[in-house]
Amino acid sequence: MGDVVTMDDLTNDEIIEILDSAERLVPVAKGEVNLPLLEGKVLANMFFENSTRTRMSFETAMKRLGGAVLNFSSIGTSVAKGETLYDTMQMIDGYADVAAIRHPRQGAAQYSADAVEIPILNAGDGAGNHPTQTMLDLFTIRQAHGSLEGLNVVLVGDLRYGRTVHSLSHALVRFGASLTLVSPTTLRMPDEIVSDLRSHGAEVTETESLKDQIAHADVIYMTRIQKERFPDEDEYAKVAGIYKLGASDLSGAKKAMAVMHPLPRVDEIAPSVDSTVHARYFQQAFNGVPTRMALLCRSLGVKVPKKVK
Fold first, then answer.
1. What are the tens digits of pLDDT across the range 129-181?
2. Which of 78, 140, 192, 229 is placed for a possible disulfide with 161 were both Cys, Cβ 3.0 to 4.6 Å?
3. Torsions phi, psi for 181 (to 5 deg)
4. Hey, what domains does the chain have and what are their CATH numbers?
């Protein structure tokens, strides 16, 4: 099956193959080339949690490839009437060829994949995994550096609840990256993830200071402190706005250093950074389209041509 629930569903060779396919699909993602590889196929966008970029980029990816999209949000549907996830997914199994699912509960994507025949792409499950985001992040890093091998990547902010950094850290370690984890003590990367990364031979440094890391970084991956994942408003207030990056902070950075962010940003990255050579976050958001195109093709067993024209 073509499920992608966690990054463990993909080998390193498969990751590179998907990134290569995504690169060839960039002109299609931009609408410069018409390539209806998925004509007659239907994607179900199953969003039980709010999303802008992920939902829209899945929809754009499917439509640019000639497919159709069913957009499902739990508001105003049978879920509001008490329908179980199992029953909802059984219904979708009969309507679509592939489904992307975002759900507030960790493990919901795997549960869905086990419940249905169609391939499932995990578009984020609680504080668990977000593998399609990881793929577009890897694509963006490779664009900036030409390779994924042996980079020094600094992950900043909410490393406790941020599923993007959980998935990404595991993937980077598979390609020999050194990781520096910058966060307040209360938002540190969970111990089990850190020890897992180290058991895979990763060099992992934990610190509370961002400024000291800028000069050595190949990638600075900023994240939003996620108010909605905090059980307590006071705890959130203590760490809100703790890390901020402005253009003046980047004067000593390496020329090719990439500043990334899964977006939406609040105030972690000042608008002054947008016009620097380091800003990659809007490009990163666009990269969701060709990357998800490549993932959809893989899940549906459709080969991306070696030459796209």
1. 899 999 999 999 999 999 999 899 999 998 988 888 998 999 999 999 999 99
2. 229
3. -105, 110
4. 7-130+286-299 (3.40.50.1370), 131-285 (3.40.50.1370)
